[in-house]
Design a protein that fits this description.
By secondary structure, chain A is mainly alpha-helical. Chain A has helices at 15-18, 21-36, 45-59, 64-71, 84-87, 103-129, 132-141, 146-175, 189-220, 237-256, and strands at 92-96, 99-102. Chain A has 10 helices and 2 strands. Chain C has a domain at 17-219: Arp2/3 complex 21 kDa subunit ARPC3. Helices cover 71% and strands 1% of the residues of chain C. In chain C, strand 1 and strand 2 (72-73) form a beta hairpin. The chains are: A mainly alpha, B alpha/beta, C mainly alpha. Chains A and C meet through helix 2, helix 5, strand 2, helix 6 and helix 8 of A and helix 1, helix 2, strand 1, helix 4 and helix 7 of C.
Chain lengths: 259, 239, 327
């Protein structure tokens, strides 16, 4: 029926796409740390960092502007930091609704915005260039608990199915939500919540019973609780070396801004 | 009275992944007609039905129900006129007991409890399950669930019934009962999407054949269902 | 102010590195424990059950209902899952949900994932389950009581998770605890109602359709008390840690300067809302008390204290051992 896109991964032949997933994951973390290390008021760091990311996004054939735009999705959470504008001591800049915004407040707020915007771009780069199953494999080989990885894998496998079922439950509800001209409709809040809870309960039971069938199917295929570990080629310097470049660049940027 | 209950004009629809599911469909359905939408899996039957009450919205083209064009403003109203039965009854039953599921639609419309009760009894009576009110929906057999699901849209007292694969998954006896049941719906316009050709032959005077999201044939049951060449061409079997 | 959804997924950039690290350590520690417990509880069924339940929670979070003015009630699901399959399985399930939300959709950061899971998958579920068990015990596992306790548990889980989030943000210097806490807790006190209603209704549905499922995981006399203690510990931890949120250098400085400069002409920088000028000192006490009172009242005052009272009474319901593998 409806096809829901369940990951951002886009298959390309780019250099980034071909890097080992383990390398990419670690590099992603290091780069995010690199971004977070930017000192307060080192404004020059942000365009420099962004340029490196833009280059990577271009190499990955994803596009610098696209990643920058998508990363804007994180920004509404910035409202959580908005209090800093008025509670950080410093020189007053302007007044707004009886509150005084200080220069330090604005600086801190902007720093958080830039850091989170850039961090999200790094995460997006990882998601666009790495197939989820490869990412899971990487996590497994980075010694995340094998059971957990298997569970996540199973979840991913059934994600589409269950989302589909949830969507159809919603559609079925909507289909019976007709209203006559001028009539009041919708029922009470409690009733609506009750119906929704019923939908959740319905979905839960179907899922629970499905898990029993899946378990039986797994047993039928020889599953005995032992998680099979997929072979991982040992990491060589050739595999790691290219990924060190952005990390080193980030390091250089952080050194420059501290000089 | 309305000229037509349903008018579909040049309807096209494609899914987010650009897959074109419906291509320039046009047809009308007169009041009280019984129409079967037939076609192979993936021909667009279910997709079309989901357009009739606005769950899916056309990429281009227009739908008019009972002379009211389908739009954001009219959608609630149109849903009161079109009752859609989903293929999988589990998607439609989400209250613990049968009574509450059948009561959903009238309650949503804001009817009084007394009226709701009346509607529920009537609906359950029509599907022959008057004693099932206090039963737990989840554990009923597929046939029983289908009938309860049907009751849950009958209680909305709609002018048009759109049924998506009503006989799918039913054992022969349940299927027989369903056909008997559906034959009694003389007061409503009925559209049935199915690949059960014999059900189509028994219930519907008019057949619309879909293939690849397009209407490839639209006519009486006799001319279409027994036209071997036509049926073969579109992956269907003569009943 | 905040968008009326569960705004608890912290993106990267909002928690500083030390705080993020603490979050990861906490998460991994609890995870290791949870993996062991669920293996004991479910054996090899562990994997398919939790994998599919994780997909269920993810999908169930789509099921909403209109509340008012375009907002809708949603489900986080931690308490619900804990009630159905126990809190340890809940940890695994919610780890997957929050993890996948971050990895697939960048909803929540990678460094921040530790605390995101802690907030939405550990603290929420543990507190919810603790409250649920506690009130159940208090009311002797009476069937109607089960619904009340589930509702209050679900509500608490959301509110406490939001308080924890506000705390972590404040400790990282990303937000002022004094302002963020009331905002977060206030908004989530309302959102929590949606969580409570949906959780209770889902429970009703399952109870009437497959009551055996709930029986298999019902909190027993022993586990009930244990979970009450866990919930209490969490609440107390939050209380203890919350003063840390204020004395970040700016906060202390500000409070000190407020003290010192009160008699002098105030610099406009310290004029928040006219009403808050002096009471900023009070707000430090206020927030600590708020967290403390909330945690202590909800968990301890209701559960433990009266739990002792009910110890002497018979606990109705059959005797289950924690190790019963369900089916």
């Amino acid at each position: 029926m409806n096809s829901i896109i369940l990951q951002r991964y886009e298959s390309r032949d780019s250099f980034l796409h071909q890097l080992d997933a383990r390398v990419k994951f670690i590099t992603t973390l290091l780069m995010i740390i690199g971004i977070l290390l930017t000192p307060q008021n080192s404004w020059i760091a942000y365009p420099l960092l962004w340029t490196v990311l833009g280059i990577l996004a271009t190499i990955a054939e994803i596009g610098a502007w696209r990643i920058s735009r998508l990363a804007g999705l994180a920004l509404p959470f910035a409202l959580a930091g908005i209090t800093l504008l008025v509670t950080t001591p410093g020189n007053p800049i302007t007044e707004f609704a009886g509150l005084t915004i200080t220069d330090n407040g604005l600086a801190r707020f902007l720093a958080i915005l830039f850091k989170s915007w850039l961090s999200m771009q790094v995460a997006l780069l990882l998601a666009f260039t790495t197939d989820f199953t490869d990412l899971l494999w990487a996590l497994e080989n980075l010694h995340f608990p094998a059971t957990l990885i298997t569970v996540i894998g199973l979840m991913y496998r059934y994600l589409f199915t269950l989302k589909d079922e949830a969507q159809r439950l919603l559609q079925a509800r909507v289909a019976r939500s007709g209203r006559h001209e001028g009539g009041k409709s919708g029922g009470s809040l409690l009733w609506r919540a009750q119906i929704t809870g019923g939908m959740v309960g319905n979905l839960f039971l179907r899922s629970y019973e499905r898990s029993e069938r899946v378990y039986a199917a797994m047993l039928a295929r020889g599953y005995n609780g032992h998680i099979r570990h997929r072979e991982a080629p040992p990491l060589t310097w050739q595999m790691i070396a290219p990924a060190t470049i952005p990390v080193i660049l980030f390091l250089i940027i952080q050194i420059i801004v501290r000089l | 009275m309305n000229e037509n209950h349903i008018e579909v004009m040049d309807l096209s629809f494609h899914y987010p992944d650009r897959h074109l599911a419906l291509k320039n469909l046009s047809f009308q359905v007169a009041p009280y007609e019984k129409v079967a939408l037939v076609g192979m899996n993936g021909s667009g039957k279910s997709t079309l039905l989901l357009h009739l009450n606005g769950i899916l919205r056309a990429t281009s083209g227009a739908i008019t129900v009972c002379d009211v064009p389908l739009s954001d403003a009219s959608i609630d109203q149109i849903r009161a006129w079109v009752g859609l039965l989903f293929q999988n009854p589990d998607d439609q039953l989400f209250s613990p007991h049968v009574y509450e599921d059948v009561a959903f639609a009238p309650r949503y419309m804001g009817l009084s409890e007394a009226e709701v009760k009346e509607r529920v009894s009537q609906a359950l009576l029509t599907v022959g399950m008057s004693d099932y009110g206090s039963r737990v929906s989840f554990h009923l057999s597929t046939g029983e669930k289908k009938r309860i699901a049907l009751a849950s849209i009958l209680s909305a007292d709609t002018r048009i019934l759109a049924l998506d694969e009503p006989s799918a998954g039913l054992d022969p006896r349940s299927r027989r009962n369903l056909i008997k049941l559906l034959k009694n719906f003389t007061d409503q316009t009925v559209l049935i999407s199915t690949h059960d050709m014999r059900l189509a032959a028994e219930l519907c005077s008019r057949i619309i054949v879909l293939d690849g999201g397009q209407i490839v044939a639209d006519g009486s049951a006799e001319t279409i269902l027994y036209n071997e060449e036509l049926m073969e061409k579109h992956g269907l079997e003569v009943p | 102010m905040l968008p009326p959804i569960l705004a608890l997924h912290i993106p990267d950039g909002f928690l500083d590195i030390p705080v993020s690290t603490v979050g990861w350590v906490l998460f991994l520690f609890v995870l290791a424990f949870a993996l062991r417990q669920t293996r004991q509880q479910f054996g090899e069924r562990q994997t398919p059950l939790m994998g599919i339940l994780a997909a269920f929670v993810f999908a169930a979070q789509m099921l909403n209902f209109p509340v008012a003015g375009g907002t809708s009630g949603h489900l986080l699901g931690a308490t619900l899952v804990a009630i159905f399959v126990g809190p340890w399985a809940m940890v695994i399930v919610m780890t997957c949900v929050v993890g996948i939300q971050s990895l697939l959709f960048q909803d929540g950061g990678l460094l921040a994932m530790g605390f995101n899971i802690v907030n939405m998958g550990i603290i929420s579920g543990f507190v919810g389950y603790a409250v649920y068990s506690g009130i159940n015990k208090l009311l002797h596992n009476n069937p109607s009581a089960q619904l009340i306790s589930a509702g209050i548990g679900a509500w608490s889980s959301v509110v406490i998770a939001s308080i924890a989030t506000a705390l972590e943000l404040a400790i990282s210097g990303t937000s002022s605890f004094a302002l963020a806490l009331p905002a977060m807790a206030g908004i989530h006190a309302v959102i929590g109602i949606g969580e409570a209603l949906i959780t209770v209704a889902a429970l009703v549905f399952v109870r009437q359709t497959r009551p055996d499922l709930l029986e298999a995981n019902a909190p027993t006399a022993n586990t009930g008390s244990r979970w009450i203690v866990v919930g209490l510990v969490i609440a107390l931890l939050l209380t203890v840690v919350s003063p840390l949120a204020n004395p970040n250098p700016d906060g202390l400085e500000r409070v000190a300067e407020d003290n010192g400069f009160i008699s002098k002409a105030q610099e406009p920088a310290y004029t928040l809302l006219p009403d808050y000028t002096v009471p900023f000192i009070e707000s430090e006490i206020f927030t600590t008390i708020l967290a403390g009172v909330f945690g202590v009242l909800v968990v301890a005052g209701v559960s433990l204290g009266m739990g002792k009272f009910s110890e002497k009474k018979q606990i109705s319901g059959s005797d289950h051992t924690e190790q019963t593998a369900s089916s």
